[in-house]
Specification:
- With 562 residues, this protein is an alpha+beta fold.
- It has five domains: 35 residues; 153 residues, no CATH class; 73 residues, Orthogonal Bundle (Muramoyl-pentapeptide Carboxypeptidase, domain 1); 148 residues, L,D-transpeptidase catalytic domain-like (Beta Barrel); 60 residues.
- Helices cover 40% and strands 15% of the residues.
- It has 19 helices and 19 strands.
- The strands form five sheets. It has an eight-stranded mixed beta barrel. The chain has a four-stranded antiparallel beta sheet with strand order 9-12-10-11. A two-stranded antiparallel sheet has the order 1-2.
- Strand 13 and strand 14 form a beta hairpin.
Length: 562
Amino acid sequence: MKTRKSNFFRLGLIAGSLLSFSLAANAQAKKAAPLKLPDPQNTVRAIVQSGKLDDLRWPNFTDYRIHLENFYRPASYALAWIHDGQPTTRAQELIAIFSQASNEGLNPEDYDSLRWTKRLAELTGDPTSQARFDVALTVCTMRYISDVRIGRINPSHFKFGIDIKNKKLDLPKFVRQLLADDTDIKKEFADIEPNFPGYRATRAALLHYMELAKQDAGSAKLPAPSGIVFPSGPYDGVPRIAQLLKLVGDLPQDAIVRDEKIYEEPLVKAVEHFQSRHGLRPDGYLTRSTIEAMNVPLTTRVEQLRLTLERYRWLQYDPNESEVVVNLPGYRLYAFEPGGKLGFAMNVNVGDAYDFQTPIFENKIRYLVFRPYWNVPPRILRNEVVADISDDRNYIKDADMEVTTPDGKVVTSGVISDAVLQQLRAGKLSVRQRPGPENALGLVKIIFPNEHSVYLHDTPESVDMFSEEERALSHGCIHLQHPAELAAWLLRDKPGWNLERTEDAMQHGPNNITVNLTRPVPILIIYATAVIRKDGGVNFYKDIYGHDASLESALAEGYPYP
C-alpha cells in the first residue's frame, strides 16, 4: 500500500510539472505570435445580419437585409467591391452614378453621394474599414436599382390599387451581374427604367426645369392684382411677366415688350399659352389664379416633375397593347394605340363632389352598356336621395326613377308613401334611374369591374360639365366629354362597330344592352401634376387631392420607405 501511494504521488508531481510546462509554453507562444486582425468576411456577415450600418445616411437597411444576405452568402461574405485593398472600377462607376441621381428625379444623398469622397480617402487595409465600405456600397446600389425600377415608396402605402410585385427584380442576382468586367452598368440601369415615352419625356423636362430654377432663383413675386387686369390695362408686374414667360418658353425670346407699365401684346398671347399649360381658362386675363400660378417657384415645378417620375415607376407598360389612361389632376383621358402612339384625348370630370375622390388603380375595360340604368349607390341613396324624397314625395317620379326590391322588382315609380320611405331609410329597398338622355350616366357606361364601383360614363344631355377650369365634380366616377368616340375606339376590332353604329346604339338602341370587348383593354387611373405636351412644354396642374403633398412628406422620412 505504501509503495502504491508513493507511485501515485510521483505521477501527480510529474503531471503537475507537465501542466505547468504546457501553460508556460502556451503563454510564451501567445506572447510571441502577432495578434490576428478581424476577418473582413466575418465583419461583412455581422453587419448584414444586424441590418444597420451607422456610416450610411439612412443607417437602417432591414428592408434590404435578406437581399444582402442572398448576395453575400453564396460568396462566403467575401468583399465584392474591393480588390487588393482598393475599390474596383465597378465601385467607382457606381459612386459616379449615385452623384448624378438627381437627373433621374432621385435624391443623391439617399445613396450617400456626399460621403463617398471621404470614404475613399479613408479606406485602408483595415478589414473592418473595408467591410463597412463594401456593405455601404451594396446597400446604396440595391436602393438605387430598386428606386429606379419600382420607385421608393410602395403605392399600396397610399391605398392605391397599383401592384408593383411583377416589376421587382432579383436584386442579389442583378447586382452580382454588375461585378462582371464586361458589364455596361449605365446600359443595365437604362434597361430597368420605365420604357414608355411619357417617362423619358418627363425626365428630360426635369433636367430642363432644374436649369430654369437655377436661373430664376431669387426672382421677386408678381404683385396681386386688385381685380382682373384686362389687355391694355395697367399692371406693375409687366417686366417680371415678360422675364418669366421668356424663361419658361411661353413668350418668344425675340419678343419686344414696348411698355413696362401696360399689359398688352405680345404678353397677352403668351399669358394665354401659360394659362393653357396650367389648367386655367386661356382668356389672356390676369386673374388672381393666373398670378398665383405664375408665382409658384420653379423649384416647386421641379418637385412636381420628380413626384410624377416616382409615380410613373409604379406602372406596368406593355408597348404591344392599347391603353386608356386617365390623369385625375389634369382632368384628361388619353387613348393610346399599341406602340405608345396617342389615338385621341378628351376632357373628363373626376370625383370630389361630396368628398367622393376618384381612386387611383389599374384594371382592364371588359364591356360597355348602352342606354344603362343608373343603380343609385347605397351611400348616395342614404345621404342624398332619401333626403330629397323627404322634401318632395314626387322626387322619384320627376327624376324618372324607380324604387325596386334588392332583386330588381319595381315597387313604385310614383309618389313615395311613408312605408316605402321607411324601407328606403332602412336600406331594404333600392332606387334606380330609367335609361334615357337625362340619365345620370348618360347613354353609355364603360365597365372595368372594381371594388370601388367606379366606371367611365356619359353625362345627361342637358348638363354642361366640361367648361369649368376645375372639374372635380362627380361622385367618384369619370365623366366623358366624348363618350361615343371612346366607345367606338374600344369596339373598333368588332365587325360593324364604327362611330355611326355606336352613336345609333346610344340614341336609338334598346335599353341596357351589354357589348363585350373582343379583348380587355388596360386602363390606368393615375395622378400626375406634371404632364409633357407634344411640343415639349409642360402642363402643370393643382394637387387636387393632396397626393403630391402626401408623397413628398413620406419621401422626406427617408429609408426604410413604406
